[in-house]
Design a protein that fits this description.
pectate lyase activity; 2 domains; about 30% strand; 6 helices; 9-stranded parallel β-sheet; alpha/beta; single chain; calcium; metal ion binding; metal-binding; 10-stranded parallel β-sheet; Pectate Lyase C-like
């Protein structure tokens, strides 16, 4: 039990013995609570351990809403829990609820009411929830409209074995609690993007989530794996993005942030990557960055085959409080990879490691002069100690939420 000190120096000794007894009891209770909290923080070995203190983990997103045993009655409070560069994404907070009851996707031009496609194309803000567990196999890209939240808490929802999610030239989107996997290239077809417009779509790459020319996007507590291209890509001037609490597994090129070395509009890009678990079967691009400003903070990297963080075209990368566990391969211990082979060029790029935990021979090659202004633009929240990473990422991915119970 931690030591507790009573503030006797500040007590008025004329107070009653009953008050003193009460103060002592409160202190003992605080000490017991603190001891239990410490044990909870140290428990970093089990994913999905939902004990009494699971909602007080030090993860600011989860601590914002998971302590509420009636979270299902206050779903829209999630919109106030964002962090990082995408913290102002409000999704469908100011709209009505839309319940998806039909997992079908028979007609991408004329989607049926009750389907996910019908929900996401609407013009007005919507908070989209699911009536039951379902697997949604999309015939074509799910092209979203602005001010939408997809909230799968309370249901087991898979977007799988077909097309996946496209966020293109819109803003204010929250995607929470989906299993996204086995996404395939689709296209050369007509697809509706709003109640008043549909058009021809060329072939899509097969990303899990493709963010294209969009802003104020928050991707939280999803499980992503095994897609044809990237799991999450953000390109063409996208910015104000937070990717948090996701569980990534079994994929080669995990995350691309920036369109091309020649596309200079991506200099405005700001992305926060926080509290994610990069797990088994991953190869590279966690993320791979171009041009912009990237805050990689308090993530748990337990697997990579080539490298964890890569980049080209002078991105600023601020790595803080992460846990990097290198693979056994002696030639893959380096966390970082510069696609530019000329060290005389990349040595000026601002890449830093601050408070990271480097395990099993992992090493981070820093560079740049450490310009304060550059790192200020690549900072979005305060990093926690890397010793806490196991605890604060232990529930990364889709949560086993059920209605009427603490999540």
């Amino acid at each position: 039990m931690p030591f507790c000190t009573l503030p006797f120096a500040s007590l008025d000794w004329r107070i009653s013995s009953m008050a003193i007894s009460l103060l002592i009891m409160q202190c003992i209770y605080f000490c017991i609570e603190s001891s239990d909290f410490t044990k909870s923080i140290r428990n970093s070995t089990e994913r999905r351990k939902l004990g009494f203190f699971s909602c007080v983990t030090g993860n600011p997103i989860d601590d914002c809403w998971r302590c509420d045993p009636h979270w299902q009655l206050h779903r829209k409070r999630l919109a106030n829990c964002g962090i990082g560069f995408g913290r102002n994404a409000i999704g469908g907070r100011d709209g009505r609820y839309y319940v998806v009851s039909n997992p079908g996707d028979d007609d991408p031009v004329n989607p049926k009411p009750g389907t996910l496609r019908h929900a996401v194309i609407q013009e007005q803000p919507l908070w989209i929830v699911f009536k039951r567990d379902m697997v949604i196999t999309l015939k074509q890209e799910l092209i979203m409209n602005s001010f939408k939240t997809i909230d799968a808490r309370g249901a087991n929802v898979h977007i799988a074995n077909g097309a996946c999610i496209t966020i293109q030239f819109i803003s204010n989107v929250i995607i929470h609690g989906l299993h996204i996997h086995d996404c395939k290239p689709t296209g050369n077809a007509m697809v509706r993007s709003s109640p008043s417009h549909y058009g021809w779509r060329t072939m899509a790459d097969g990303d899990g989530i493709s963010i294209f020319g969009s802003s104020h996007i928050w991707i939280d507590h999803n499980s992503l794996s095994n897609c044809a291209d990237g799991l999450i890509d953000a390109i063409i001037g996208s910015t104000a993005i937070t990717i948090s609490n996701n569980y990534f597994t079994h994929h080669n090129e995990v995350m691309l942030l920036g369109h091309s070395d020649s596309y200079r509009r991506d200099k405005q890009m700001q992305v926060t990557i926080a509290y994610n678990h990069f797990g088994e079967g991953l190869v590279q691009r966690m993320p791979r960055c171009r041009h912009g400003y990237f805050h990689v903070v308090n993530n748990d990297y337990t697997h990579w085959e080539m490298y964890a963080i890569g980049g080209s075209a002078d991105p600023t990368i601020n790595s803080q409080g992460n846990r990097y566990l290198a693979p056994a391969n002696a030639f893959a211990k380096e966390v970082t990879k510069r696609v530019e082979p000329n060290a005389r060029l990349w040595r000026h790029w601002n890449w830093r490691s601050e408070g990271d935990l480097l395990l099993n021979g992992a090493y981070f090659t820093a560079s740049g002069a450490g310009a304060a202004a550059s790192y200020a633009r690549a900072s979005s929240l305060g990093a926690k100690s890397s010793s806490m990473v196991g605890a604060i990422t232990s529930n990364a991915g889709v949560l086993s939420c059920r209605r009427g119970r603490r999540c």
